[in-house]
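agent: user wants the full assembly modeled, not chains individually. Plan: 1) parse entity lines 2) check alphabet per entity 3) run joint structure prediction 4) return tokens. Steps 1-2 passed, two entities, 513 residues total. Proceeding.
--- entities ---
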Amino acid sequence: MASFIHLLKTIEQHRWLVFELAKREVKLRYRGTWLGFFWSLLNPLIMTVVYTLVFVFFLRVSIPYYSVFLFCALLPWNWFNEAVVSGTDCFTGRANFVRDAIFPSGILPVVSIGASMMNYVFSLPILLIALLTFRVPFGWSLLTLPLVIAVQFLFTTGIVFFLGTFNVFFRDLRYIVQNLLMALFFLTPIMYDLNTIPARFHFLLKLNPMEHIINDYRCIFYYNNWPDWPDTGIVLAISLALIILASWAFENYRESLAEYL
Amino acid sequence: MNDAIVLEHVSKSFRRMMVSGRTTFKDAILKGQIFQMGRSAGYVEALKDISFSVSEAMVLGVIGPNGAGKSTLLRILAGIYRPTSGQVKTRGRVSALLSLGLGFHPEFSGRENILISGLAMGLTRKHIADISEDIIRFAELEEFIDAPMRTYSSGMYMRLAFSVAVNINPDILLVDEVLAVGDASFAQKSRARMEEFKSRGKTIVLATHDLATVENWCQQAIFLHGGQMYALGKPKEVVARYREIALAGKSP
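--- prediction returned ---
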């Protein structure tokens, strides 16, 4: 708990540094490209078009407004995916900060997650345009979006602190993570609806916190409904427990990071 | 007089690493250490039971042959490494010039890196905005400050690093072997800036191979050899001891 509070203080103290670094990471990603930031809109858009083609026209899935159904879940998944991949590398990719300077390395995981969150937030207008174009009804539950984003942020923070720290000592982790994420993408109801799979497997899929988070997004944007608060509460509790554990692990290994990088 | 830095019985050991740098899965299985996160059995003692203190407004010279533990000592003072045993106390803001990299991001411009370093040191954005012109002018980089730092020469890199480190007004400045960087005029300028520093009551720790600098400029010196402190005291005496032991190639 002490290490959790210490970490919280570090991040609070350096919140501007987090902001400036995350901002620059977003800018850097598309530096030198013609379309620049539009790539972060274009990527999920193209993916949605391809999936819609396959699922609606080839496989004849009968989910109404399938592109919205998919798009509203694909965007936060992309954020999660990007945050975990870049977060696993947050210390190894910034060795000079950790090793050669007086630098609060505890903020680096948050920078990775923040940078990918900016991408997500910037792509939201496209989702709103899609809602309007396809005349999908939406309502006040849209206002709960920041809460769901916050829960996803915390859950990702817990994961990334672990992965980032241990990736320094065990560099296979990033490859393991990439493969796990790929598997998890198919095991999370993003392209399909949970109810299309046999009910006896539901509990297995529901063990995955991302399932509940994605479901919340879908409630907000697709079902015009409130998020599932009890489930979200459980995910929040799991996330906080993860962060507390991860900050303990991080504080324990913090000084060794500089030696191993 | 107040002590700016106090070290008590500080030791630091590192795990010995393989050529490959880390344990691979195969090694881990073969040696049964899969859950040990790459910890290997061997240790190297980089510093052994070092104790000294430095008063405010003093310049401490740290001398010793390569591998003596100078850089490790500076990193411990900077708080980057935690000592394996012993206590370190530093008073006030610490600024460090540890290596050419100095936590600059090569893709960011010089100006952006000034902001990032300043924030990392705990300065406010306003404070950084106030001093960044001074930093740029001192580094003589007015023309290139908005170019990405990967386009900088190593001299430009180091000038900016030095300029950031001294202009954020630290109470303790740690300098590792960098006075020689830059041309003669910049070296002179940085010497003058450090002189001014000293006169304002700041503490400087300087690790160097330049024995003349230590003799002429430091008030106190330590001589490290193989991680042990062989001498501590007046620079002339410490340098003499260094010449006697390390340069003569004798084992002490």
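agent: reporting back. Chain B has a mean pLDDT of 83. The interface with chain A takes residues 14-15, 22-23, 25, 37-38, 75, 78-82, 94-96, 98-99, 101-105, 107-108, 112, 115-117, 119-122, 124-125 of chain B (CB under 8 Å).
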